[in-house]
């Protein structure tokens, strides 16, 4: 059963099939995005309770947005409280990955596992992007370039076009604050503090968070696994929807089967 709701100021879509086992999967999108940046195969993963959020100021969530990754993480934690979810496997794409890592560091008991997609421990943003997203007149032009750089070369126009329109529809202040929040994010020195299972996913053709970002995470997150997918870019969850959903499903089954530590 798929339902939609609003709690703690966050709009969300929930898939909760009968007999769902293990910790829920919480999907957190990236800068200027919304829940639809995750493919339907993940938003309605068979046999799993899945909660896909629109961060404040994005998608169907009311404004304003937040100005830091830490603030977004606090809002997501408030949503888990409102939904009475004791712990979730947190999947984050790009800025959402920064939110997931922050939750793992600040509220480790609430994070059963991490799925880190097209993200890094530090997310520097080009000054030109920060300037363009701060200027409503430039945002429409910048949106095309940013989205095109988010997909692997050769991605079809039919795949890219909807994301250009969604980014153009995002309030300029929200998009700018998201990218500024990414630019300020840096937990490179703290990854050793994380002790939860992690799946790191990247596209071989990712130009925004290149594979070296994923390799850095994998090398420093104890017991993590790394999935690199060819012919996919920054939007790897969309471009390689089947393999990503399969890998996430297998990871969650392992989490559900793992003994509970006392």
In short:
By secondary structure, this protein is α/β, with parallel strands linked by helices. Helices cover 42% and strands 17% of the residues.
CATH architecture level-2 label: 3-Layer(aba) Sandwich
How does the overall form come out from the CA principal axes?
A: globular
Runs in which pLDDT lies below 50 for 5 or more consecutive residues are: none
Question: Count of DSSP E strands?
Answer: 8
Give the N-terminus to C-terminus distance in angstroms. 33 Å
What would you call the quaternary organization? single chain
**At the first level of CATH, what is the class?**
Alpha Beta
Keywords:
single chain; alpha/beta; Rossmann fold; eight-stranded mixed sheet; 42% helix
Question: What does this entry look like structurally?
Answer:
With about 260 residues, the chain is α/β, with parallel strands linked by helices. It has ten helices and eight strands. The protein has helices at about 40-45, 70-80, 95-105, 125-135, 135-150, 155-170, 170-185, 210-220, 235-240, 240-255, and strands spanning about 1-5, 10-15, 25-30, 50-55, 90-95, 110-115, 200-205, 225-230. It has an eight-stranded mixed sheet with strand order 1-2-4-3-5-6-7-8, with helices on both faces. Helix 2 crosses helix 3 (about 95-105) and helix 5 packs antiparallel against helix 6 (about 155-170). The model has no long low-confidence stretch (mean pLDDT about 95).
